[in-house]
Design goal:
Pfam families: HMG_CoA_synt_C, HMG_CoA_synt_N. This is Hydroxymethylglutaryl-CoA synthase. By secondary structure, the chain is an alpha+beta fold. It is built from 13 helices and 18 strands. The longest helix is centred in the middle third of the chain and has 23 residues. The two termini are about 35 Å apart.
């Protein structure tokens, strides 16, 4: 049985800040941001967008009525959860109008959450081949103003429909994975900003990739020559390149050129959005599929997922016949082109807007937000969501 990605949706907020201008304001050489870490623009979520609305907007464009009936499981991968008890998936379940007999849960393991959800979805479809699973990877990366991690912030979500009719990518059965209890990145429950040991995290990312890649080769017998491209989890776009370079000598010059070229293409969207944690790997995959028009069906794509703390996994997928027909290239081009640039001062003001924590009522002007699904306010400690299309 084939199991894999039938549909992919993506959403990012309508505001962004230019990294060149942010660098100037922070008294940093712009090349440190644009070349050193490889970021051009950073998505800025207004107060009317959170991890729930980002995910719901990403899914809204791809989930049709037939999907709503067939989806019997919604798995929300995030490390920007809005409630310690209630799953963010329940809110999305309601906002999309999914089948009431569909389960909805939230999973967490740093940036690995969406990959964990996909692996769970594969098992579910294997047992229920007529059903579908909605997988969501949605996050807002926050480190704080004037911090070392500020330039690697971002916001966005990727939604995937996993089924036994994988029109885009069939996920192959075997994968390699690794878990280790380390403190390279974390966010205690009392903090709305993450803590990171940047140098250590970079080292662990590459170490995990090296160990998992060796395990994957041993398990499958596959090598670089068998991969058309490798997509990486991208906390910033230079990170994946550092890992990729560690294995390029294993292939021919042709392998090296192919993988480097396709890697660069796979970072296009991430470079203009920033870090979206659980969705970053799948935004990279989406960028590759939509921006490289001559990827051949039958090509094998490698995927490296890493979630600090840490869990990593390497797995692969096979591009399906006519897969481009099921992508949303024009819609995503419009999403990017319709965004509004804000000044650094405007970005700082938006960043510091927060929701009340004392149970008071607040209402937001959602007409300023072009998204179809928004956070409209809070009442009695409950977030209020609106789907403008209902």
């Amino acid at each position: 049985m084939k199991i894999g990605i039938e549909k992919i949706g993506f959403y990012t907020p309508h505001l962004y800040v230019d990294m060149n201008k942010l660098a100037v304001k922070r008294n940093v050489e712009p090349e440190k941001f644009t070349i050193g870490i490889g970021q051009e623009k950073m998505a800025i979520p207004p107060i009317t967008q959170d991890s729930v609305t980002l995910a719901a907007n990403a899914a809204f464009e791809i989930v049709d009525e037939k999907d709503k009936e067939a989806i019997d499981l919604c798995i929300f991968g995030t490390e920007s959860g809005i409630d310690h008890s209630k799953s963010a998936g329940i809110y999305v379940h309601h906002l999309l109008g999914l089948n009431p007999h569909a389960r909805a849960i939230e999973v967490k393991q740093a940036c690995y959450g969406a990959t964990a959800a996909i692996q769970m979805a594969k098992g579910h479809i294997a047992l229920n081949p007529t059903k579908k699973v909605l997988v969501l990877g949605s996050d807002i990366a926050r480190y704080g103003l004037n911090t070392s991690g500020e330039a690697t912030q971002g916001a966005g979500a990727v939604a995937l429909v996993i089924s036994a009719d994988p029109k885009i990518l069939e996920l192959e059965e075997q994968s390699a994975y690794l878990t280790s209890d380390i403190m390279d990145f974390w966010r205690p429950v009392y903090s709305d900003k993450a803590f990171v040991d940047g140098k250590y995290s970079n080292e662990q990312y590459i170490l995990f990739f090296s160990k998992i890649w060796e395990a994957y080769k041993e398990k499958t017998g596959l090598e670089l020559k068998d991969l058309e491209a490798i997509c990486f989890h991208l906390p910033y776009t230079k990170m994946g390149l550092k890992a990729l370079r560690t294995i390029l000598d294993e292939g021919t010059e042709e392998d090296k050129e192919r993988l480097l070229e396709n890697y660069k293409i796979s970072t296009t969207y991430n470079r203009n959005v920033g870090n979206i944690y659980t969705g970053s790997l799948y935004l990279s995959l989406l960028s590759l599929l939509e921006q490289k028009g001559d990827l051949k069906e039958g090509s094998r794509i490698g995927l490296f997922s890493y979630g600090s703390g840490a869990v990593g996994e390497f797995f692969t997928g096979i591009l399906q016949p006519n897969y481009r027909e099921y992508l949303r290239v024009d819609q995503h081009a419009e999403l990017f082109s319709s965004r509004t640039e804000v000044t650094v001062e405007e970005y700082e003001k938006v960043f510091q807007e927060t929701l009340p924590t004392d149970g008071s009522t607040i209402e937001f002007d959602i007409d300023k937000d072009p998204a179809k699904i928004c956070l409209s306010g809070m009442t009695d400690n409950m977030r209020q969501y609106v789907n403008k299309m209902n």
